[in-house]
Amino acid sequence: MYVVCAEHLEQAIDEFVEIYEVPPDLYYLDKLSFSDWDTPNKCDFCDQLPKYLVV
C-alpha cells in the first residue's frame, strides 16, 4: 500500500506491480474515509501532501 502525491503516483504503481505482479487499485484520498485509519500527512516518497492511495 502506498499513499502518494501526483508526482510519485507512477513510481508507486511501478513498485506495486513489481512486488505483487498485478495492477493496483487506485483511490483519491479526498473521496475516502476510514474509521480506523488516519490519512498520512505526507507522500511515501516526499514531503508533499498525498492525493492517492495505491493498494
Please tally the helical runs, counting DSSP H or I stretches of 4 or more residues. 1
User: Element order, helices and strands?
Assistant: EHEE
- The order of strands across the largest sheet is 1-3-2
Regions with pLDDT < 50 over 5+ consecutive residues?
none
The rough form would be described as globular
Computed structural class: alpha+beta
Distance between the termini: 5 Å
What can be said about the biggest beta sheet?
3 strands, antiparallel
Could you explain how this protein is built, in words?
There is one protein chain. The chain is α+β, with helices and mostly antiparallel strands. The protein is 22% helix and 16% strand. The protein has a three-stranded antiparallel sheet, covered by helices on one side. The longest helix has 12 residues, at 9-20. It is globular. It starts with a strand and ends with a strand. 18% of the residues are buried. The mean pLDDT is 95.
Question: Quick summary of this structure?
Answer:
By secondary structure, the protein is an alpha+beta fold. The protein has one helix and three strands. It has a three-stranded antiparallel sheet with strand order 1-3-2, with helices on one face.
